[in-house]
Each structure stands twice: as C-alpha cells, then as structure tokens.
Design goal:
Blueprint (H helix, E strand, L loop, with lengths): L1 H17 L11 E5 L5 H13 L3 E6 L12 E5 L5 H14 L5 E4 L13 H27 L5 E8 L9 H24 L3 H4 L3 E8 L8 H14 L3 E4 L5 H22 L1
Parallel strand pairs: 1-2, 1-4, 2-3, 4-5, 5-6, 6-7
Helix pairs in contact: 1-8, 2-7, 3-4, 4-5
Length: 267
C-alpha cells in the first residue's frame, strides 16, 4: 500500500508536468488555424494535417492553397487580420458553420511587405493589428463563443523573430515588438484560462512554439516536429530545432506514465 501511494504521488507529479490531458487527435479534432497559408511553414503544417492525417481543418487567412481542397475535410475563410471588420466577418462565418472546434493554432507571424508605402505609422499599425490585437480578439471570441463547454481545448501560438535583413531593421523591429507582445499575451492567457469564471468549464491547454529563422528552409521538418509536440500534448513554451528528438522522447515516456496514472486513479 505504501509503495502504491509512492507510485501514485510520482505519477501525479508527471500529470502536473503535462497539465490538462488534451492532445491533438488528428482523426477527431477540428483544427482552426490563423494564417495557415501565408508562410511556408504554415503551408507545410496544413498539408500534413489535411493530406497525411485527414484532419478537419479550418484555415482563416488572406490567401488559400487550392491543393488543400483535395485532401481531408477542409474549409477556408478569407480574412485580412490587419482589418478589424474582416476579422469580425471571419468569426461570424465560423460561428455559422457550427463545427465542434477543439484546437486553435495562431500562425500569424509572416513578414508583411511594405505595401503601405512610406507611411511608417500605418505600417506599424497594420503589423500590430495583424499579429497581436486582432489575434487577441479572435482568441477571446473563440474561447467565449465558438467552443462547447464539454470539450477539452488546445490553444497554440507560433512565433518567430524576423531577420533584420528582410525589409531593413526598421520594419523588422515592428515584427519583433509584435511577437514580443504576443508572448506576453500568451502568458497572461494561459493563466486566465485556468479561472472558472473565464473557462466556462472547459479544460484548456496552451502552448507557445518558437520557430527559428533558418536560411536552410527546413519548414516541413519544423512542421513535423510541431505536430509531434501537439500529439504528445505538450504545454508551456517549446523551441523547435533540428535536434528536438532528445526532448521528444522524454515526453513520450511521460505520456505513458500519465496514462498509467489515469488508470490507477480510476480504480
């Protein structure tokens, strides 16, 4: 009995490491991705979800990828995240669709070109609207209006800092500041969603993923690593890199331990 209690305590600590039991279940989850086809990484992620895993995917972005319509269940809602009215329209479309959304991935981190001309203030406003302010609005509405109280929910924010060589230091700085703001928002959101007054009974798990700037363009490799992390049910902050295998294996064993702990707890 003493040994059983010790094992129980150890397994409970493993449960605390992973938090909520939510993991990405490609065959049953309905995934909403913001900015799914604006970056090469996002395209690879969407292609893997749709073509390899046959996951039901809802992509909210400025541009669509026609190849995604030839795989699993896929829906596209056009949205310019730099414009509030466009975001509101996309949210209404998702609500009308009435699907049972369980995973939200924010991949709005692409470098916006300087189409606004030389108006620095306007450009800065567009970047912060697209990468931070409207992401906050979308996430809040997703949590309060688009998910069902009985479901476990997974929220993932993907961030990457832009190279100052792209577009020059001035424009890259705006992106870096917006991404820094997103990190702070994610931290606050993770804490807030643990409050019963906010989560409406849902069991939330949140994950912040840092993608490196890589001239070798290993985007598909990074997308595979992110999907592995989501299937393992990681939470907190994770850094993607070419040598993530050493981090993945411990999580595999922790998941095994967690499942055993759940079994013990149910007896």
């Amino acid at each position: 009995m003493v040994i059983r209690n010790i094992i129980y305590q150890v397994l409970q600590q493993a449960e605390d490491i992973l938090g909520a039991r939510k993991r990405l279940q490609p065959q049953t989850d309905i995934v909403v991705i913001l900015g799914g086809t604006s970056t090469l990484f996002g395209q690879r992620l969407c292609q893997l979800l749709v073509h390899k895993f046959k996951t039901t995917l809802v992509n909210v972005d400025r541009h669509d990828d026609p190849s995604l319509h030839n795989g699993g269940p896929y829906y596209f809602f056009q949205c310019d995240f730099s414009k509030r009215e466009s975001v509101n329209g996309a949210l209404k479309s998702l609500k009308r669709k009435g699907l049972r959304y369980t995973v939200l991935i924010n991949n709005l981190n692409e470098y916006m070109d300087s189409a606004e001309g030389n108006d620095t203030f306007q450009y800065c406003t567009s970047v912060f609207n697209a990468h931070l302010i409207n992401v906050m609005i979308f996430t809040r509405t997703f949590v309060t209006q688009l998910v069902r109280p009985v479901d476990d929910i997974y929220i993932i924010n993907v961030t990457r800092y832009q190279d100052t060589k792209i577009g020059g230091p001035k424009y890259a700085t705006y992106h870096q500041l917006a991404q820094a703001g997103l990190i702070q928002y994610h931290d606050g959101l993770s804490s807030e969603l643990q409050l019963k007054e906010i989560n409406n009974g849902n069991d939330y798990k949140s994950l912040l993923v840092h993608i490196p700037m890589d001239n070798n363009r290993r985007e598909e490799e990074y997308a595979c690593q992110v999907l592995e992390m989501l299937q393992e049910g990681r939470k907190g902050v994770q850094y993607i890199g070419a040598n993530s295998f050493g981090i993945i294996m411990p999580y595999y064993w922790i998941n095994c331990v967690r499942d055993f702990y759940t079994l013990c707890r149910s007896e």
